[in-house]
Specification:
- The chain is an alpha+beta fold and 75 residues long.
- The chain has a domain of 52 residues: Defensin A-like.
- The protein contains two helices and three strands, in the order αβαββ.
- It has a three-stranded antiparallel β-sheet, with helices on one face.
- It is found in: Secreted.
- InterPro entries: DEFL.
- Belongs to the DEFL family.
Length: 75
């Protein structure tokens, strides 16, 4: 009987953990200074951290186009 209860407990914990991951993390994305001719990664990350408390990286929207500063933060 104890083995069955323990098994049910483990299955329940697995289901709860999967449901929590499926809800999403609620992150938003914004392009900082889209008119800039290029992306300075240091300035990009500094602006993202100070304004949005997020993580930033330089990403090109199309092949051959200059990269933009993309900031991802909690909504």
């Amino acid at each position: 009987m104890a083995k069955i209860s323990y098994s049910y407990f483990l299955v329940l914990m697995l289901v709860v953990s999967v449901v929590e991951k499926a809800k999403g993390d609620g992150s938003c994305t914004i392009i900082i200074d889209p008119k800039a001719p290029s992306c300075d990664i240091i300035q990009c990350r500094l602006s993202c951290i100070t304004d949005y408390n997020g993580l930033a990286e330089c990403i090109a929207s199309r092949i051959g186009s200059p990269p933009n500063c993309v900031c991802t933060y909690d909504c």
